[in-house]
């Protein structure tokens, strides 16, 4: 009898044994048959504390390095609070929240991700508790929720990025991207994963001069769909796809590190999101969570944002290097309710067009 | 004394091995999500999974067999070193390999940057097949080489004496004798290909090439279905069936194996004659390529300050290493992975040793089910095991803790220890135990004092293998992580997914360097021809 080197399954095991083992598994399976989707455990295990200390859990789509930097600055002011981060794409975070919500409660304190329509949706589902930042007056209007549940933390426009060694005359409008010279040269993020991309799909389709027709023409140019904004900016910088549709701060980040990449703000204007932050209704440590959000929109917090290439939500924090002043950027006039209402359909249409 | 221990062993196996898989099956059969699954592309994903694993398994067996002949039966110069170099893909987690090769070959990769052309923009099916083959052929080699070494020299000599030439002898005598081993290698690599997650997610998905494992991940992570766990369990049942069928088929094919008589003296290496030099050049080129190329591909990205910057002595920086290694998530990831790996090594070591003891030295009708319950999970893709623990975690409240990850590791990796201890345990002469019995020891005591002690070194090696596998694992933990429980593999994967290739490459270089050191330290003793049967060719999941 050959003993095969792997020894993975001894050859001496007979068919009866196989049947017996299958029976063991089958019995186990049958014994449990008919059970339904199990519930996630309740999240209310942590004891709510009114003191500004202990642990807070943050769900965010911020890049890891950036959020680490913010937390260490926050800890200089609040050494007693330990911030635990769970970083993932907005789509992943939503799936996680959805799963936890239906089976118990969200196991986090803070959500810092995505766009206003997502937060409005969660607000309507009573997932958040009220929160007013302490320096509301200093903040830009687009950052403020009139109902007082969340606060915008940075302004993130989506722009055209291009590789400066490959492209000498950059496209200056969204419309230009549908021209044949950009066939097979464009890369953009997956709206199933990136919250900003999902938002943009709706924003573009609601824009009278672009609309779904533009999305279809863009799709005809066979763009590559990357997982999220990060890989898009990488591909543009490396030159594998010289033109990208991507959030602006990543481009400034890479350019500052020396990558041959630059931003073009399209003439039709740009869609933007505000990366809001809110405190979950079931937050185990709401006081600490609110302190963290307050820090994010404080002058110090916004200066860090500017250092990290973000456009800030308050004027006294300055502007990132190489970025035009916010007033000089043509922003889409965004009807957030319409975007919220049409987003799922827009994403579906977008996927159908570009894939 | 034996009975309580046996019961305890069965109870723990039922909880750790049977229950998670049974949960997947029961939940999967609970409702019908097939129409939805088909709508989401189940058929394409199944076809992609089957085709990529089939082709890569065929490729791996061909390469592995050629390698076994060349390295174990010829006078190729530098065979020992070649063997070590060619085995490196086994010690590089597949997802790291995917990151590395894409940094080398594709648009914007190293070759593109140096020479202005990308030899192969391999995103999509072909790239997945290439990488799966690359990471599977060392396993195929282990299996085939072990069989090759067991063929007594007399058989081939007889053929040659009868006037057959070398090629004829190989085709008519040797090949039929190793055919069962080739079949076993095929199933092993096929099942491992079906279960792989790292390669299709990094190389396949960007081009829209979805496999069953990336589909499972998509359903669980970007919630586009209503009851993701149940839907995923249904895919799990399909994968489970493929795994079980593979194992049964394997058994059928290898049934006709024969016991060799003769002296067991291995055949003398064959002189390659005129083809010795060209073959040596080819073998050395390939082996240096598979070892160095991914390392270089990673190193370049790891040393670049930013993508698109030309790499020169002035621009090269260690900043990515500093940044990636000091990030708090990385530190958490390393801590978690080390703790989990040590925990898994301990639990798998004890469980594996006990299963080995009960299935070799102690009589009992449950020998074979006991063995199967430990070895079957090895034929099951990692994502199915992870799904089982996800469900179990929800029921037991272990969800969001490290314990679910540890549990999944034990399910997946105990087999490694069982494989390493069974050989030595079975080989110990019963006179030792009898001596202990005569000395007055009870049945179990006599075994523990003799056989178990003698098998301890093997169990130790098995545990080290478990730890090494677990510490850079991705497939299982990617579905089970929660805030604060990220593993090192997941941290690297997240960097890669977020587009921070410089950081993911820097961490990968470190991980790969550690892997190669381990290979140098432990691997060498397994790659010597004389230790064939104990070769740790257990599937490495990552």
UniProtKB/TrEMBL annotation, chain B:
Its main location: membrane. The keyword Transmembrane applies. It comes from Dietzia lutea. The chain crosses the membrane at residues 7-30, 50-72, 84-104, 124-148, 185-209, 229-249, 279-304, 338-358, 370-391, 403-421, 476-495, 507-526. The lineage of its organism: Bacteria, Bacillati, Actinomycetota, Actinomycetes, Mycobacteriales. InterPro entries: MetI-like (IPR000515), MetI-like_sf (IPR035906). GO terms for cellular component: plasma membrane. The keyword RNA-binding does not apply. GO terms for biological process: transmembrane transport. It comes from the Bacteria. Residues 46-250, 334-522 form the ABC transmembrane type-1 domain. Belongs to the binding-protein-dependent transport system permease family. It is a multi-pass membrane protein. Keywords: Cell inner membrane, Cell membrane, Membrane, Transmembrane, Transmembrane helix, Transport. This is Iron ABC transporter permease. CDD domains: TM_PBP2. It is found in: Cell inner membrane; Cell membrane. Pfam families: BPD_transp_1.
